[in-house]
Amino acid sequence: MPISLQSTLPRTYRIKQIEQDTENVRSYTFDGSLGSKPGQFVMVWLPGVDEVPMSVAFDDGATTKITFFAVGDMTIELAKCKVGDLVGLRGPFGTCYEWKPGQHIALVAGGYGAAPMYFIARSTVEHGCTLEVIVGARDKHNLLYLEEFEKLRHVSLHIATDDGSAGYKGYNTEVLEKLLSSCIPEKSKKKKECSPVDQIFACGPEPMLLAVRDIAAAHGIPSQLSMSRYMKCGFGLCGNCVVDPLGIRLCVEGSVVHNDVSQKIEEFGKYKRDELGKKKSFGN
Amino acid sequence: MNLSQTILGVDFENPTVLASGIMGITASSWRYCVQNGAGAITTKSLWPVEHQGNRNPTIIATENWTLNAVGVPDAGPEKAKAEIGDFMKTHEVPLIANIIGLSADEFASIAAVIATLKPDFVEVNISTPTFLKLRGKLFAEDGNEAGAILKAVKKEIGSIPMFAKLTPNVTNIGEIAKACIDAGADGITAINTAGPGMAIDLRSRMPILAAHKGGLSGPALKPIAVRCVAEIYEATGGKVPIIGTGGVYTGEDALEMMLAGASLVGIGTAIWQRGIDVFSKVCDEIQMWCTNEGVDNVSDMIGGMHKELLKRGVKGTGMKHA
C-alpha cells in the first residue's frame, strides 16, 4: 500500500511572521513546509477552538504561509495569535493548478483569493509563463498582494474595484472579458499584436468563479477554478464536500477543477451544503 | 467466477458495501460510489430530528489508523427523504438505511419515516462511540437494551430486513448478537469503530480531536473485526447474514472477512488510501484470487474457516484450543 506523502494528522507549528494585509485580513508564515503546490489547501487547527480549510498562500519548501479573512468564530480567534503561538497544520490536500512552461495565463483573483493566486503567479513565472493578473475587490482598501504581484517579472497587472476607488470601476470579470475580446484574432487588424491567453485560472467568491467559467467557455479557453465547500476530513472520507450531481469530493477531485468538470457541476453558483449536508443557496 | 448473491431476498452484484458514516451524505455521493464498483451503499446515520455534530478536527489519520469523532451530524428526516428518494429513482444497487436515536421511541420514529422509502435493509446503529458523549454508554453493550431498540424498530419496518450494528467493545459479542437476533434482527453488521482512541499534539499538549476521543478504524481494526465476525457466526450458528466491516482494504481482506463468516463486506476508511474505486479494486482482487484457487462462487467462502476447523475436529474458535 503506498504511504501518502500528505500529513493527515495535524502537527503544530510556531507563527514566524505576521502581516496585517487589510483591516480584517492577516497573513501568517509558519516555520515548516508541508510541500504544498499552488492551488492546494491545508487544514488549519487552532487547538481548543476549531479547524478550517485554507488555501496555501505560499510554500517555499521551508515555510508555509496562509492569508485569511477574520470573519467566523475560528478565524476571529486565529487573528488574535501572536508571533510564536502554535497553530496546527495538516495536508496538503486536493488538486493543484496545472500549466505548461511558457504559457500565457490569465489569473483572476477576487478578494482574499489573491493570496493563493500569488503562489500560482510565483510558480508559473518561474516556469517561463507570462501572466495577465486581474485583481478585484470591493474597494482599494481590500486589494491584496498588489506589491507582490508588481514585483514579479512578466506580469501585467490589472485592478478592478466595485466602487472605482482603484483601477477599473466594476468587476474583475468585466476586465477579463474586455481583455479576451480585444484578443480575438478576427477582430484584430494586426494579428501579431493579439496574444490570446492559453488558460484562465481563478480563485475568489463563487459568483465570480461562475462568471469566469462562462467567459472562458464562451471564448473556448481552458479554465481552472478553485472551488470551496464545507470540509471536515480533507482526504475524501467524510463526504461533506461532495457536489451535485457528480458526487465528486472537492477535497480530492478538487478543489481546483478544470472546465470540463466545472461545467458538469450543476450546483455551481447555485447552492452549497452546510455541515449537516443541508443545501444553502448563494446569496443567503 | 460469480461475485453475486441473494441475501434475505435482495440481490447483490458483488459483496462490497459502502460502510455507514463514509461518503454517505447525498444521493450523488452514493451514485459516485456505485460508479466505482460498490455492490451496495449504506447511508450515514439518520436521526429523527436534526442533529449537530462536533467541531473540527473530527477525522485524523495515520497510515495505520484513523480516529473519528464527527458526532453523527444529520439534517433530519426531510433531507433523508429527499436524498433516499432521489437514489431510489434509479436504485442501481441495494440501499441500506442506517438509523439512530437516543431511545426506543426515537429509533421507532425515524424507522417509521424510513420504512416509507422502502430501503432494501435497515441498519440500526446502536454502537456509535458518540453515544458515550450523549448518554454515557452504547446500547450495544447490553443485550436487553439492544433488544428493546430492535423490537421497537421492527414494529415500524415490518418485512424490511433489519441489521443490528454492533460494537467490538464487549466481552462477548456473540451473546449480544444472539440477543439481537432473538429481538427480531435478521442480520448483524460488525463492527463499528473500536476504542475510542486519543491522539495528543506534543507542542500544544492538547488532544487533537475537538471531542478529545474518537472511534478507531483503518488497518489496525481488521483483526478485531475478523475475530468479532467469527464469534458472531459461531454464536448464531452461521444462520444469519453478517456484514463484516473494519479495516478491509484489499480483496484478500474481504475474503478473510468472509471466511470468518461475513456474507457482505463493508468498506470505509480504505477509500482514503486506495481511492474511491477501492470497491472495484477489491472486486477485481477477489475475482483473481478465487479464479486462481478454483472458487466458483464467492459465497462458497462464507464461514469457510469454521467449516475447516470442524473438518479437523475442532469445535469453535475458543482459545482453549490453542
Task: Give a brief outline of the structure.
By secondary structure, chain A is of the alpha/beta class. In chain A, 19% of the residues lie in helices and 32% in strands.
Counted beta strands of chain A = 15
In angstroms, what is the radius of gyration of chain A?
A: 19 Å
Order of helices and strands of chain A: EEEEEHEEHEHEEHEHEEHEE
**Integer average pLDDT of chain B:** 97
Strand fraction band of chain A?
25-35%
| Number of helices in the DSSP assignment of chain B | 11
Major sheet summary line of chain B: 8 strands, parallel, barrel
CATH architecture of the largest domain in chain A: 3-Layer(aba) Sandwich
Backbone CA Rg of chain B: 19 Å
Integer count of domains of chain B: 1
Weakly predicted, low-confidence segments of chain B: none
- Write the CATH fold name of the largest domain in chain A: Rossmann fold
| CATH T-level topology of chain B | TIM Barrel
Mean pLDDT metric of chain A: 93
Notes on the protein architecture:
The complex is a heterodimer of chains A (284) and B (322). The mean pLDDT of chain A is 93. Chain A is 19% helix and 32% strand. In chain A, helix 4 (172-181) packs parallel to helix 5. Chain A has two domains: 7-93, Translation factors (Elongation Factor Tu (Ef-tu), domain 3, Beta Barrel), CATH 2.40.30; 104-281, Rossmann fold, CATH 3.40.50.80. A seven-stranded mixed β-sheet of chain A has the order 10-9-8-7-11-12-13, with helices on both faces. A six-stranded antiparallel β-barrel of chain A has the order 1-2-5-4-3-6. Chain A has six helices and 15 strands. Chain A is globular. Chain A is an alpha/beta fold. With 322 residues, chain B is an alpha/beta fold. Chain B has one domain (5-321): TIM Barrel, CATH 3.20.20. Helix content of chain B is 37%, strand content 18%. Chain B is built from eleven helices and 16 strands. An eight-stranded parallel barrel of chain B has the order 3-4-7-8-9-10-15-16, surrounded by eight helices. In chain B, strands 5-6-14-11 form a four-stranded antiparallel β-sheet, with no helix packed on it. In chain B, a hairpin with a 2-residue loop joins strand 1 (5-7) and strand 2. In chain B, helix 3 (104-115) runs parallel beside helix 5, helix 6 (173-182) crosses helix 7 (222-235) and helix 7 (222-235) packs parallel to helix 8. Chain B is globular, with a radius of gyration of 19 Å. The two termini of chain B are 35 Å apart. At the A-B interface, strand 1, strand 4 and strand 6 of A face helix 1, strand 5 and helix 9 of B.
